[in-house]
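Trying the structure run again after the queue cleared.
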Amino acid sequence: METNEILRNQILEIVKNQIKENNPPETKTTFDRLRSQEFDDSQTRQMIGQCISVELFQIMKTSEPYNNARYIKNLKKLPKQPFDENRIDKKTI
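Done. Tokens:
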């Protein structure tokens, strides 16, 4: 299994756990909102995973702590991709 696939699976596991545990609650709210906009389950989880990826990338790049406010802000803007405002090159994730 390639590293990218392992990382993708781990991020999707985080999404799954956040929805299941309702922590943060904005993840479940975002999931329900996107599903009601006719995105399928896979698309919805992938979009939420992009927001998690932004946070992971920022932590690794800048050594700053996890920013829950930024994560929630990005969730609320979905389906707009979080890469645009956070100036993260999609190719690096």
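Confidence is low (pLDDT under 50) at residues 86-93. Worth checking whether this holds up in the mutant runs.
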